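Technical appendix A lists one of the benchmark inputs used to test multi-chain prediction within the project. The record comprises four sequence entries:
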Amino acid sequence: MLKTASDTDILFRRLHRSTGLSVADLEGLETLPVRIREFGRNETISREGDRVAHCLLVLDGFVMRFQDTRDGKRQILSFYVPGDIPDLQTLHLPTMDHSVASITPARLAMIPHAAIWDLCERNPLLARALWRETLIDASIARTWVRCVGRLSAHARVAHILCELYTRLDAVGLAEEPIPMPITQSEFGDAMGLSVVQVNRTLRDLREAGLITVQKRQMRLHDLARLQQVADFNPLYLHLDPAER
Amino acid sequence: MLKTASDTDILFRRLHRSTGLSVADLEGLETLPVRIREFGRNETISREGDRVAHCLLVLDGFVMRFQDTRDGKRQILSFYVPGDIPDLQTLHLPTMDHSVASITPARLAMIPHAAIWDLCERNPLLARALWRETLIDASIARTWVRCVGRLSAHARVAHILCELYTRLDAVGLAEEPIPMPITQSEFGDAMGLSVVQVNRTLRDLREAGLITVQKRQMRLHDLARLQQVADFNPLYLHLDPAER
DNA sequence: CGCTAGTTTGAAAAAACTCAATTGGCGTGG
DNA sequence: CCACGCCAATTGAGTTTTTTCAAACTAGCG
């Protein structure tokens, strides 16, 4: 198998799961010219205000997007796992309105916009699949607004855990113990909470027998009850094959 | 001028401003078959879980999207003004993951998905313009996450006022006094605050000489300082013609 | 004129934050 | 192999912000 084929394979699997499209439907994907870049932990990958000409496909590791505030706080806008394209929106909005950074050491494929445009022109099914991906990303952002705006600290933390579990499960990465390299401080920056509050909330969830989070791994002991606490409805992830 | 042409005219102007595309580029827009529906104040237009087959174009009035929480709270996810399409994402995600409702009496054009798909197939520039619209919508949602998650009550309220002003200005609706039919309770549900807090915050902003909000109208007396308080950077609205 | 929705204010309670200090795990250099 | 240093997790205590509850007030409308 060609190198590029193996690198875009995770993207194929992702789009296949999300849209039901077959190898034939997604024809051309393996021809995308990708350049691989490796990052260490906590490295900034692109910055608010940058004008970019490529998209990033996560091959390995966890990645996040964030915005800063004037007084030095940080809001994480989303987490990305292998198979995700954290900045697909730059395809049509090339100026970054937020920053992207690695959480863990990460391996990313950089795909030139021009190559994606070309391919989309020749393959409308792919164009549609990518558009759909950006719409799911938007749906997740909206749900975070609800989460941060109206849920209690307990519900917020439970919610992000449910989301990460569900998304990891969808790419086959949710075998227990589930890899969870996100620090409590990062959970706080994502859910609009302080580290202290995240810590106490995790303790409460642990003491309630719902979860174990330690050594960068997590176990969900009672998903149903966790989802209950989180007021979690997976609809917003649009993973259901019935909806296409 | 044909009825449909006049109804989609606001959409044309909107896409023209956003993308720079001309009448010729957006050819076919005026042929979209639209059905006009009128709503009173505070009417639900579509509901979380619904499966829809058309998009809504706001012709007149203010519209919002929202999600409820189990304990009866509500989070508003975005506001829409004339020229906006609040549910463009249903084009590829037909199951509503939130609800849409009118704020004021509103006149909406309902456009069948199939008609939009057809047109997009024949006119790739239009497809691209609509994709871009959904990406801006997503960018706004991300910025709301930051706003609700990390800004103080004062900054949040100032921020939403800056956003609404900027977006209304972009469609020529920001002549002072600026129409502002959104209630304090709705501002609260949008910014993750209680009515009481919104009220006190507006009072503070008024006493600081920044704004006047009354009788469903608002005046911004010192936009620069309001943006300062809001930590507002209009980049996320992607209105700059330089970026395309 | 009375009703209703929306705004305004006061006061007490709750949630979450900040500050500060301690603990634990892990990698690295001696 | 151990000690050191660093980052992350943990805990206590006091403070701040925001919420909740309750009650008035106001403006538009039939």
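The longest strand of chain A covers residues 54-60. Chain A touches chain B through 52 residues (CB under 8 Å). Comparable benchmark entries are summarised in Table A2.
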